[in-house]
Amino acid sequence: MASPKRDLEALAAAVTAQEARRMPPVSQWNPPDRGGLDMRIARDGTWYYLGSSIKRPAMVRLFSTVLRRDEDDRFYLVTPVERFAIVVEDAPFVALELFIEGAGDDQVLTFRTQVDDYVRADAAHPIRVDIDPLSAEPAPYVLVRDRLEALISRSVFYELVDLSVDRDVDGVSTLGVWSAGCFFAIGPNPEIE
Questions:
Q1: pTM of the model
Q2: How far apart (Å, rounded) are the C-alpha atoms in residues 11 and 14?
Q3: How far is the C-alpha of 165 from the C-alpha of 135, rounded, in Å?
């Protein structure tokens, strides 16, 4: 098992490598809409083309860099000369791993997605939790970039619950986590009636 120090060194190296990669400026491109492409991102983060899963991680990573979510909440693959609508069942990314630095309100939480994006939860990359009105199941997300979110996997959400602390939010006892000086509510405290 790796030491926590080694894990943080590996995380720092991965984040540095990510920062060195430049993301295409897809939010600045306004090419013509070429209609829909038979591409789908499943809720588990698997990318499909023509009904078959895309097996090459490098290809998925490439597509993920030209993904955009427009104001109409539709998702597009965008190049400088064309854009194609695709189907995203939930969120385009899935947070599969959590790295924890520090503790308490000084703690910093960093997530790794299925396409090896690293995102630090902070004011610019908030964590939010939707509760299904019928099943009361939580659906946790973290903002990755430009209106694109990652669904936080169940195992990682359990880690967040284990890290959670109780805090009064607008007079309500609320469980949440600290990251980069921000408190992110993950739900009401079930021990308080």
A1: 0.86
A2: 5
A3: 24
Each domain of the chain, given as residue ranges in start order, spans 4-88, 93-188
Which residues on adjacent β-strands are paired with residue 7? none
At the fourth CATH level, the homologous superfamily of domain 93-188 is duf1285 protein (2.30.270.10)
Summarize pLDDT for 43-54 with one digit per residue, the tens.
Answer: 999 999 999 999
Q: Where are the beta strands (DSSP E) in the chain?
A: 33-41, 47-49, 52-53, 67-69, 75-78, 83-88, 93-101, 108-113, 118-120, 127-131, 138-145, 148-152, 165-169, 172-179, 182-188
Report residue 46: phi and psi, to 5°.
-75, 135
- Consecutive 10-residue runs of the chain (193 residues): their mean pLDDT? 51 54 83 92 96 95 94 93 95 96 92 95 96 89 96 96 88 89 86 58
Q: Compute the Cα dihedral for 24, 27, 33, 39 and give only its sign.
A: positive
- The whole-angstrom separation of Cα 119 and Cα 146 is 12
Q: Count CA within 13 A, CB hemisphere, residue 45.
A: 20
The two tokens of residue 154 are: 């169940």
Q: Please, where are the H alpha helices in 21-65?
A: 57-65
